[in-house]
Amino acid sequence: MKVNFIDLQGQYQSLKEEIDAAIAEVLDSSAYILGPSVSHFEQTFAEYCACREAIGVNSGTSALILALKALRIGPGDEVITAANTFIATVAAIVQTGATPVLVDADPFTRLIDIDEIEKAITKKTKAIIPVHLYGLMADMDRINAIADKHDLFVIEDAAQAHGARLKDRPAGSYGILGCFSFYPAKNLGAYGEGGAIVTSNKKLAKKIRKLRDHGSERKYFHDYMGYNARMDGIQGAVLGVKLKYLDEWNQSRNDIADLYREALSGMPIKLPQEFKHFYQVYHQFVIETDVRNELQQYLSRNDIGTLIHYPVPIHKQKAYKKAGLKKVAFPVTERFCETVLSLPMCPRLKAAQVEYIAVKMREFFGSR
Questions:
Q1: How far apart are CA 309 and CA 104, in angstroms?
Q2: DSSP label of 131
Q3: Whether residue 172 has pLDDT greater than 80
Q4: What is the rounded average pLDDT of the residues 223-232?
Q5: In whole angstroms, what is the distance from residue 335 CA to residue 289 CA?
Q6: What confidence tens digit (pLDDT) does each residue in 109-152 have?
Q7: Domain limits, the chain
Q8: How far is 31 from 26, CA to CA, in rounded Å?
Q9: How far, CA to CA in Å, does 355 sit from each of 104, 165, 264, 265, 273?
Q10: Is 232 helix (H, G, I), strand (E, B) or coil?
Q11: Exposure pattern of 273-283 as b/e (b: 16+ CB <10 Å)?
Q12: Interatomic CA distance for residues 218 and 220, integer angstroms
């Protein structure tokens, strides 16, 4: 049996008629940049995130950059974020000229260690960017309380948390701005690059709409030094179709996570935990094991696709040696880099495939 890490082709085939019709409508209208399909998606996605506004952009990284720029964060400012995250979170901070301040991960949630955030705050701190990693939201009530105490902005990096909730409030609705990626492999993925910023602050939304389009609200009249960060019409059309199925797909991911928990029970691995009041959407199903590399190789030999999120921490990346990162140890994050393994996870994964993965994993651990 072959188990791919993700099945994007299968997802497309299941929606082919709707997707093809939506794309054809964009082609017929020639509204290739922004246009009606993007506007419609922005409206529906804002409602989905319980926000007043959504601004479609060309990537999740652009979403973070524009969010920081809209809040006038730049050189001389510090932004606190998670050490355990994809590099784009920190890249966005660096590209605004601000200095990223990393905080180690909590060993249980794998997200930013909230107990360590206040220790990282200085007179230069302007914002906190919590990262909702692997489909689990950070505890935004606690983070917002810290931010309010110190008069800081909170920007949610929700690139891996489309539809995740805390106490029935969705990801993106807790910070002053929430940033999403629609990279094809996300729970809500485009057919190319894409991203969005959600907010209930109309003034900021208006500014971000200008920033994404060369600082312009009216063609050839520019209020800011902006960017070319607009969403393509085709991506808006694709996302508009897929958004209707997101809740169903997220529930399937939860059902698959339950199958994994049962099938993998008793093995010498650490499974992702569930937390009261949090609905996680399992963008990834991540286990931990001290023999991660050997297990990954064994699964690969048995046609089971896996990935490592992430093998090298940001503070050890060559590109960030001169980014102003403080030379501190992040032992929990570093341990994750050596022990985490993401197993196949997508809404179309079958129970028989989960069982096959479990059988091969039992074989592996039984032979040691």
A1: 16
A2: B
A3: yes
A4: 94
A5: 10
A6: 999 999 999 999 999 999 999 999 999 999 999 999 999 999 99
A7: 8-103+110-243, 246-366
A8: 6
A9: 34, 29, 9, 12, 20
A10: strand
A11: eeeeebbbbbb
A12: 6
199 in helix, strand or coil?
Answer: strand
- pTM beyond 0.85, yes or no: yes
| 144 C-beta neighbours (distance < 10 Å), count | 17
Mean pLDDT (the chain, rounded): 96
pLDDT over 90 (residue 34): yes
What tokens were used for 212?
Answer: 């994404």
Q: CATH assignment of 8-103+110-243?
A: 3.40.640.10
Return the pLDDT at 174: 98
* Tokens coding 97: 């000229």
Query: Which residue type sits at 87?
Result: I
pLDDT of residue 324: 73
List the one residue out of 208, 247, 249 whose CA is nearest residue 231: 208
Domain 246-366 adopts which CATH fold? Aspartate Aminotransferase, domain 1 (3.90.1150)
| 287 vs 358: CA distance, rounded Å | 12
